[in-house]
TrEMBL record:
<keyword id="KW-0804">Transcription</keyword>
<dbReference type="GO" id="GO:0003677">
    <property type="term" value="F:DNA binding"/>
</dbReference>
<dbReference type="GO" id="GO:0003700">
    <property type="term" value="F:DNA-binding transcription factor activity"/>
</dbReference>
<keyword id="KW-0805">Transcription regulation</keyword>
<keyword id="KW-0238">DNA-binding</keyword>
<dbReference type="InterPro" id="IPR036390">
    <property type="entry name" value="WH_DNA-bd_sf"/>
</dbReference>
<dbReference type="InterPro" id="IPR036388">
    <property type="entry name" value="WH-like_DNA-bd_sf"/>
</dbReference>
<dbReference type="InterPro" id="IPR000524">
    <property type="entry name" value="Tscrpt_reg_HTH_GntR"/>
</dbReference>
<feature type="domain" description="HTH gntR-type">
    <location>
        <begin position="11"/>
        <end position="79"/>
    </location>
</feature>
<dbReference type="Pfam" id="PF00392">
    <property type="entry name" value="GntR"/>
</dbReference>
<protein>
    <recommendedName>
        <fullName>HTH gntR-type domain-containing protein</fullName>
    </recommendedName>
</protein>
């Protein structure tokens, strides 16, 4: 079982392990009854603390994904016994953090959206939205000066 963790992510390491194992189960990489590494082996493999690995396993057991048999190990439960994958409310959807790698593919689809580009270079800010009276005075002075210049140009072209 291969789990990628990103140490600089906003998502905790235990949550990354949790979602990665769920994704492995739902994608079929981990089959029902398959034995998982011990907490100690997982922690050593991922270079994380025992507490971090244990926290992920405990949460997976609480949510019905895993079961532990004393003296034998930790195993994947049957699919139909497992609860829906909860999406953490604290997840920041900053896609550069590789969070989609840890969400199940079926859950990820509901967060997909298309961004529309807005051309800001062709827009002008409404001066009425600006709080500074100085800008309004400058704008009025520029407008009147431009108008008088246009009149002068018009008179000179006749």
């Amino acid at each position: 079982m291969h789990i990628d963790i990103h140490r600089h992510s906003d998502t905790s390491l235990s949550n990354q392990i949790y979602f990665s194992i769920i994704d492995h189960i739902q994608s079929g990489l981990l089959q029902q009854g398959e034995k998982l590494p011990t907490v100690r082996d997982l922690a050593k493999q991922l270079n994380v603390s025992l507490v971090t690995a244990a926290k992920a396993y405990t949460r997976l057991k609480d949510d019905g994904y895993l079961t532990t048999v004393q003296g034998k190990g930790t195993f994947v439960n049957e699919q139909q016994e497992q609860a829906e994958t909860p999406v953490p409310s604290s997840t920041s959807f900053d896609w550069q953090l590789s969070i989609p790698d840890y969400l199940p593919r079926s859950q990820f689809a509901q967060y997909h959206y298309v961004e529309e580009a807005i051309n800001l270079s062709s827009s002008m800010i409404d001066p009425g939205l600006l709080p500074n009276r100085y800008l309004e005075k400058k704008n009025a002075a520029c407008t009147s000066q431009t108008s008088s210049n246009h009149v002068e140009v018009w008179r000179n072209t006749r």
